[in-house]
Amino acid sequence: MKPIPVVFHIGALQIHTYGIGLAITFWLSYRYFARRLRAHGYDDTWFGSAFVWIIVASIVGARAVHVIANWGIYSRNLGDIFAVWHGGLTSWGGLALGVPTGLYFARRWCKPLRLVVALDLVGPVLLLAWAIGRLLGPQLMTGGGGYPTKQWFGLEYAGQTGKRLPVPIFQSIECLVIYFIALAVERYIARRGGPVGVVISASATLYGMTRLFDESILLPHGPAGTWVEGVSIGFVLLGVAFVPWLLWRDRAGFRRRVVAGLVPSDPWVNPEKPTTDGGDHEDGESTEHDLDDARANGEAGNESVQDDRRPDEIRAGSDDLA
């Protein structure tokens, strides 16, 4: 397979496929995160304005970390510092500036959205964005391949001689697998009613593991790669410790919910969102509040409500809920 042209022209306009890939990835990320906000009861009208700043911050951070890590090269060619169309955007640098920027505007313009909830909601979005972005970014840019190879799956990349390991494709598959794992973790946490913070911690841990493997085994790199390895190790160690701690801290609350027979509510829901009676219960289930409401309605209509439970069961249920 011959390399896809990294540049093409429409008249006098020069188009970079790398830039198109980033633009598509940013757009999909915006739509997906806005959808996840709405699904949990949050207003997403603020996110359009915030996302412009997130894009700028992500690109600046990604480029800054790359330039700093390779300053020996850029110090002799200062004009290349801003040549992002040649590649050279570090994912960890984009996260380092883009995520705090997003959290800042979320705190400022969406008060009910707690920061840890925002991180949990954005975790799967980042993973899916990486899965798509690796195919539409490094796969299409100059020097996007890994080590030389003679294997049948080797690809040719612009600016590199001979077949190379298609690392961007490998990374895309890795991120897609982690994305589905993150969704499975999210479903598990939703079923038990918490705690928040597990989804983003698990996502960061698994992504750090795969990046560490890629940088150590598949990719030739200089100082920038060493930085990535170090940050990846940090994320792995932090996540391995943080996920068990979150689950351990929530153990008492989880036991109370199980003993009381409560149906877990959405741990990421907007706390200011109006709820309807019984809205958090599964079909066929009720709580003491449902029974009290039914009894009140029956008395208002001069009707009696039959309670089939024994008195000792009613007292036990009340004590458990208390």
Folded structure, characterized:
With 322 residues, the protein is mainly α. It is 62% helix and 4% strand. It contains 11 helices and 4 strands. The chain has helices spanning 17-39, 47-69, 71-74, 91-109, 115-136, 167-192, 198-218, 223-249, 251-260, 288-300, 311-321; strands spanning 7-10, 13-16, 155-156, 163-164. The strands form 2 sheets. Strands 1-2 form a two-stranded antiparallel ribbon. A two-stranded antiparallel sheet has the order 3-4. Strand 1 and strand 2 form a beta hairpin. It is globular and about 65 Å long.
Quick description:
The chain has 11 helices and 4 strands, in the order ββαααααββαααααα. It has 322 residues and is mainly α. Helix 1 packs antiparallel against helix 5.
